[in-house]
Specification:
single chain, five-stranded mixed sheet, 13 strands, 25% helix, 25% strand, binds fe (ii) ion
């Protein structure tokens, strides 16, 4: 099974954001053998605007079942309205969603906090995750926007998932979870969390450089550490039902 993992397209976040997101989409849709699913781990619209989501909807029109969660740049009501067509539902609550595909269950949690950049899984989301895991048959990937650990990148480490022990407790209770997929950091990275592979997808819109790669002014902001020229990339997860192998693919 092949799952594409795309993240941080940030439509409206740079003048190349649309072209880059569409380049990744076209690469995926042009594969001689299509992927089985696409997961997009947040930061879809840079300013959370309806117009940005309308463009994003086209830029994420993948030829495979697709699941998308919000990130810290997203706005739940607009996200729902354009991407999920959730008319009439409570627009402000967390957007938690499930995709079942060929025996694999993908659970995408909403780790965004309206008006803030750090992440949190609220009680409703933790309860939802517990109940979805309790009824899942077979292996599960759990995804969200915010990494639950520090990555050695000061600007995102300061706004990572808070209280990660809440997530860890749930994951350790369910041994059918095989991977945790996140975004937010705009760099391809991997680690272990709760005894599971933790894969951070690179950002499509930009790449966040490490402090040791840059000469930064004394007073620096995240923007000084973002490289908008490096090409967009995403991850291809090969999964055999037990083991995950993750290939990062740059799209020129
Ligand atoms: Fe982002």
């Amino acid at each position: 099974m092949l799952v594409a993992h795309v993240s941080d397209i940030h439509i409206g976040g740079s003048k190349q954001s649309v072209e880059r997101a569409m380049r990744v989409r076209d690469y995926l849709n042009g594969l001689p053998t299509p992927v089985d699913a696409v997961v997009v781990t947040g930061d879809i619209a840079d300013h959370g605007l309806v117009e940005e989501y309308e463009i994003a909807r086209e830029a994420m029109r993948y030829a495979a079942p697709t699941l998308v969660c919000p990130g810290n740049h997203d706005s739940r009501p607009e996200f729902r309205k354009v991407l999920l067509d959730h008319v009439g539902r409570d627009g402000a609550g967390p957007v938690n969603q499930t995709l079942r595909i060929d025996g694999l269950t993908i659970l995408l949690c909403d780790s965004s906090i309206p008006g803030r950049h750090d992440g949190h899984l609220d009680d409703a989301t933790i309860d939802w995750l517990e109940s979805e895991l309790a009824r899942a048959q077979g292996p599960v990937f759990v995804g969200m926007h915010h990494p639950p650990i520090a990555l050695g990148l000061p600007s995102v480490d300061a706004i990572r998932l808070n209280h990660p022990e809440r997530l860890e407790r749930v994951l350790r209770r369910h041994d059918q979870v095989k991977a945790v997929l996140v975004g937010h950091a705009h760099t391809a990275a991997s680690a272990v969390f709760a005894g599971l592979p933790l894969v951070v997808a690179p950002g499509v819109v930009s790449t966040l450089m490490m402090p040791s790669e840059l000469v930064l002014p004394e007073e620096w902001s995240e923007d000084d550490a973002l490289d908008f020229e490096r090409p967009p990339a995403f991850v291809l997860h090969v999964f055999d039902g037990e083991r995950l192998v993750s290939h990062t693919r740059v799209v020129l």
